[in-house]
């Protein structure tokens, strides 16, 4: 069994002001995505300035934060937030939904593309390889917060999370680190190398939806479902898995469509 590193969720406290590691992980994800996107900006559109890229990153980040929070409220714990709406603003405690954030990013990309003469899938193909940076950073934030841990296990790398998080004090799968490895590292490598060559428009977006859906579906088998929801279908499917099924189907459909429709301009992002 591996010891859980005791990390204070508060990275820095200045008087009443507290800066949480969870919030800093979002800054790491957004900053890392901006740096990598700036490297590929000329391949995407040589006429775009760094300022326009910054605008794109800003609005997509707003989509992640607002969509992620509202998605968690709607998909995972609507009753609690209706009972106490002020909880919606306590984002430093966690409670963000990837699927909600994904919807927020899509809406932001659709809006930004219309204002800048870019199609929805042109922007999504450009952005997709950078998204795993934020996903990986977010899972590290979950680990530091000692939240979203896994099922009890006797594997050698099992961890006992702090009592405030897990009163049962059982050795568990560190599922946050599994998600970091798959949704962060593995997904980044798949998309980064796949997108290095010109691909049909929509193909990179399809690869993102497909592989994220697969990776998340797999990890959910090792992760404890949200207590207020439990298992929702067949006694073993979680909300996360149910939300991933349409992503996997959509990813396969987009890849098939990208390679089988009449030839159009390709995207090299």
Automatic annotation (TrEMBL):
Pathway: Protein modification; lipoprotein biosynthesis (diacylglyceryl transfer)
Residue numbers binding a 1,2-diacyl-sn-glycero-3-phospho-(1'-sn-glycerol): 139
Keywords, sorted A to Z: Cell membrane, Lipoprotein, Membrane, Transferase, Transmembrane, Transmembrane helix
Pfam family, one: LGT
InterPro entries membership: Lgt
Topology with respect to the bilayer: Multi-pass membrane protein
Its EC number(s): 2.5.1.145
GO molecular function, one term: phosphatidylglycerol-prolipoprotein diacylglyceryl transferase activity
Any one biological process term the GO annotation gives: lipoprotein biosynthetic process
Subcellular location, record wording: Cell membrane
TM segment ranges: 20-37, 57-76, 96-113, 177-195, 201-219, 231-259
Primary location class: membrane
Gene Ontology, cellular component aspect: plasma membrane
Family matches, as NCBIfam families: lgt
Record-stated family: Belongs to the Lgt family.
Known role: Catalyzes the transfer of the diacylglyceryl group from phosphatidylglycerol to the sulfhydryl group of the N-terminal cysteine of a prolipoprotein, the first step in the formation of mature lipoproteins.
Name of protein: Phosphatidylglycerol--prolipoprotein diacylglyceryl transferase
Lineage: Bacteria, Pseudomonadati, Pseudomonadota, Gammaproteobacteria, Pseudomonadales
Gene that specifies this protein: lgt
